[in-house]
Each structure stands twice: as structure tokens, then as C-alpha cells.
Write a structure and sequence with these properties.
15 helices, 495 residues, alpha/beta, Leucine Aminopeptidase, subunit E, domain 1, nine-stranded mixed sheet, six-stranded mixed sheet
């Protein structure tokens, strides 16, 4: 789909669908709607006076074949109350519009942004429209042949701001494409995305977008003493991989920001096997890895002026005669011994080795992102992701990015009792502390493998998969965290 910014008066726009956003209870006074009302001989007033549309958040009305204008239909989308509306309101409104069948069937769509000439608003609208129109038909044997939107014009009449607004369209489109790429990777079935296949895709994408790339096979992983990663992979016939991506956008002497993404391409639970219900969703246990990969690509495309390293430990967690067992003791790359209590607590094991490897890069900060604990469902549900860490400024960076992107996060503490919960009687640590405070306890485990640098942990379990369609998020894989990390990196200041 092609996105462009054009300077046009509303009466000059030619498209199959014209979209206008407006605030609740102030639609009759909206300058664009007033212009359209004059052009269309009072049609807009008649629609608004009917009470069919009030401008409530994500409310829509489709006005067909208006006379006097060069467009087939006008779609009004509500933003809610003006005092409460923010960038996320525009993002949701754009996603709502993109999901309408009448808009999907329009080859050319125009979004009129007069009065909303702000780069971040334009970016949010572009993101929302692109993400709201996303469909994953890759594995359908019969593809839909209905007409698709080919071009989207973001239109306004303010010539002075064209360059600034073009930047918003460009950035919004790139960020949306990165999120869609993360969604597609997370949707791939595990027979199409083994650790080796993921690493091969990452290599191809790294070459395409000019990222430095390394991949460790099982021999190199063993040489690096990543024995926790190897232990998780022991039960599978598909060998593990460890992917490293580098974007050198900053000063050569500046320490990198390191991103670590959990890459379990399928999680059966291992010997502690999961119940069959919904186990098919465990193909998405690599979403953290998908988010890190696509964040690196998006950072390169946006030319973010930071040195960034992405690390993705990859493995399948399967039961077999070779698999690690409850009661086993393994030794991590850092040398800490770990008692295996539950083989379904495998994500923290592969992250442990990756976090320790990150220490060798002398980073300025490390952020890991993972579908780590089912306990998040009982903390924030499907509404947001818990974040934990050891540096208040880094946590503030994540909060700020959350506000800009609408990807909600909430800070949880790690107290000494949580740390005690993860100590073993017969080893240094155990990989499961039982049913209580599971999300915090997992972070307390990871804390043992960080060096002397700011660290943040984002647990996206239950945010990786949407159960009910949202305005710009479909049912299924969400790509949650990609926009959050890109926004944080784009506004990064040294801690």
C-alpha cells in the first residue's frame, strides 16, 4: 500500500473514500465538516441532526454518494471527548476506519487532517490505518480476491507544514510495517519456523536492511558455555541458535543499548508438559525474539542514531528421552547452578545466558522482552505488560514510550522476599518459585544474570495474542512491544 502526504483543499480531493475524524459533540462546528456541508448542499447537517453520529470514540457513519464532491463516500469517525482524546485516540480511529468493509473495498482513500497538523498525530494515524487494515492470509489456500486499498492520501491544506507532516507519514508507515512483520513471524507455525529457520530469516532480513549479523550454531553455543540454552533445547530434534544483530547508528565510542528477545519457537512445556487446551498458541512463545528482530530492522530503516545490539536465543522446548528433567541441575554461562523445578519455566533459562553474554559488550543498558509468565494474566490481563528493572530512569523511558504508542506497561517491584523465593536448597538458584508472584519471581531470577548496568524487563505474556479484535489490533498475533521499543530508542538519552 502506498502512503503519501498531499496539500489539497477538501473540495479538490478525488477518492473512493474520504475519512474525517471529529470530536464528540463538536462535529457540527468542525471546519472540514462545515466545508463539506456547504459543498454537499447541507447533507452533513442532515446526517448529524439525525442523531446517527455523535463523535463518540470509534463511532462511525458512512455517507454515500454525496453530491458536489469528487469522492464516492465520506466516513466520519469519532475521537471521543476533546479534552480526553490523545494520539492513541487518533490511532484507534484510523484503525477503526481501516477495518470497515467499505474502506477495504476502496482502492483510493483520503484522510483529511486539516486542523490536526502535527507530526506525531500524522504518524499515529498512519500507523493506525496500516495496522487496522492488516490481514494474515499467508496460509490460506484460497486468497480473497476482493478489491484492496492501493493508495492512502493524508491530506491537509497547510503548505507550510508539508515537509514536517511527510516525516510523520514516512515514520508511521515504517513502524507499522515493522509491527506487521512481527505479527507475521509470531503467526508462523513452528513447522515453518524452527530455530534454524528463524535464524535464516533473520540473516536474510539483516542483509536486506544492512544490519551486522552473527548466528551461533549449537557448537558455538557450547563453546560460549551457554549451557542453560543448550539444556532447554536437549529434548528437541531441532538444534538451538543464538542470533546477534547490530545497528551502528551512533558514535563508535558509545556503548550499545542491548535488546534481548526470548525465542522459544514452540513450547510444549517439556517433561512438565502443558495441557492440550490452547497449546497451539505456544508457537508464539518466540514473540519476544520477533519483536527484537523487527525493532532492529525498524531502527535501521528509521536511521536511529544509537548503537543497538539485538540478541535472540532460539530453541524448541520438547519432551523426549534426552530432555532436561525436573530435579536436574544445570550450570549457566555465568557459572551459577540452577535446579530445574519445572521444565515449563524454560524462557528464563535461555534469557539467563543471553543476559550474561550481553555483559561482555559493556552495554549502557539492557532491555529484555519475553512471553515469560502466565501470571501476567492475573495482574494486568490483556490490557498491558508488567515491566520490572533496576533503574528508575530506564523505567521512565519505557513509561514515556508507552504513553506515546498506546502500548501500556506498568512497573512492578522486586523485593528481597522475591529473591529469596528463587533460591534453591541444593543449587544457587531454582527455575521456579511456585505459584505466588510468578511474574516478579521470574524477574528476580533474571536479576542474577545482569551486570553493572541499567536493566529493564518486559513480560508480554498475554499481550502477544489478542482474543478480541481491537481497533487496530486483529485477533491473534499483535506484535506488542515493537512500537514501544522503537519509540524508546528514537528518544533515547544516555542514562
Amino acid at each position: 500500500m502506498k502512503y503519501s502526504m498531499e496539500i489539497l483543499q477538501v473540495g479538490e480531493i478525488k477518492s473512493q473514500s474520504m475519512i474525517r475524524f471529529c470530536y464528540q459533540d463538536s462535529c457540527p462546528g468542525d471546519p472540514v465538516i462545515k466545508k463539506l456541508d456547504g459543498i454537499c448542499d447541507g447533507l452533513m447537517s442532515r446526517v448529524l441532526n439525525s442523531g446517527e453520529f455523535e463523535g463518540k470514540a470509534n463511532q462511525t457513519v458512512v455517507i454515500h454518494t454525496p453530491k458536489g464532491i469528487r469522492t464516492d463516500k465520506i466516513i466520519l469517525v469519532g475521537l471521543g471527548e476533546e479534552g480526553k482524546a490523545d494520539h492513541e485516540s487518533f490511532r484507534q480511529a484510523a484503525g477503526t476506519a481501516a477495518g470497515l468493509d467499505t474502506v477495504r473495498r476502496s482502492r483510493e482513500v483520503a484522510i483529511v487532517m486539516d486542523g490536526y497538523e502535527d507530526t506525531e498525530l500524522i504518524r499515529a494515524v498512519t500507523e493506525g490505518f496500516a495496522l487496522g487494515g492488516y490481514e494474515n492470509l499467508e496460509y490460506k489456500s484460497e486468497k480473497k480476491e476482493s478489491p484492496k486499498t492501493e493508495s492512502v492520501i493524508i491530506a491537509c491544506s497547510n503548505k507550510r507544514k508539508k515537509t514536517q507532516l511527510e516525516k510523520g507519514v514516512w515514520e508511521g508507515n515504517i513502524v507499522a510495517e515493522g509491527t506487521i512483520m512481527a505479527r507475521r513471524l509470531s503467526s508462523d507455525p513452528s513447522n515453518y519456523l524452527t530455530p534454524e529457520m528463524f535464524a535464516a530469516k533473520a540473516k536474510d532480513l539483516a542483509r536486506k536492511f544492512k544490519l551486522n549479523f552473527q548466528v551461533f550454531d549449537e557448537k558455538k553455543i557450547a563453546k560460549e558455555n551457554m549451557r542453560a540454552l543448550l539444556a532447554v533445547a536437549m529434548g528437541s530434534d531441532n538444534p538451538p541458535r543464538f542470533v546477534i544483530l547490530k545497528h551502528n547508528g551512533g558514535n563508535k565510542k558509545t556503548a550499545p543499548i542491548v535488546l534481548v528477545g526470548k525465542g522459544i519457537t514452540f513450547d510444549s512445556g517439556g517433561i512438565s508438559i502443558k495441557p492440550g487446551l490452547n497449546m497451539h498458541e505456544m508457537k508464539q512463545d518466540m514473540t519476544g525474539g520477533a519483536v527484537v528482530l523487527t525493532t532492529m530492522i525498524t531502527a535501521a530503516r528509521l536511521k536511529i542514531r544509537q548503537n543497538i545490539v539485538g540478541m535472540i536465543p532460539l530453541a524448541e522446548n520438547m519432551p523426549s528421552g534426552k530432555a532436561v528433567k525436573p530435579g536436574d541441575i544445570i550450570t549457566s554461562r555465568k557459572g551459577k547452578t540452577i535446579e530445574i523445578i519445572n521444565t515449563d519455566a524454560e524462557g528464563r533459562l535461555i534469557l539467563a545466558d543471553a543476559l550474561d553474554y550481553a555483559d561482555s559488550l559493556k552495554p549502557q543498558a539492557v532491555i529484555d522482552i519475553a512471553t515469560l509468565t502466565g501470571a501476567t494474566k492475573y495482574i494486568l490481563g490483556y490490557a498491558g505488560a508488567p515491566i520490572l528493572g533496576n533503574n528508575d530512569r530506564l523505567i521512565d523511558y519505557l513509561y514515556d514510550a508507552s504513553h506515546r504508542t498506546g502500548e501500556r506497561v506498568w512497573h512492578l517491584p522486586i523485593w528481597e522476599r522475591h529473591r529469596e523465593q528463587m533460591k534453591s536448597n541444593i543449587a544457587d538458584l531454582k527455575n521456579s518459585g511456585g505459584p505466588f508472584a510468578g511474574t516478579i519471581a521470574a524477574a528476580a531470577f533474571l536479576e542474577n544474570f545482569i551486570g553493572d548496568w541499567p536493566w529493564g524487563h518486559i513480560d508480554i505474556a498475554y499481550m502477544d495474542n489478542e482474543v478480541e479484535k481491537q481497533p487496530y489490533i486483529p485477533k491473534g498475533a499483535t506484535g506488542f512491544g515493537m512500537r514501544l521499543l522503537v519509540s524508546m530508542l528514537s528518544s533515547w538519552k544516555k542514562i
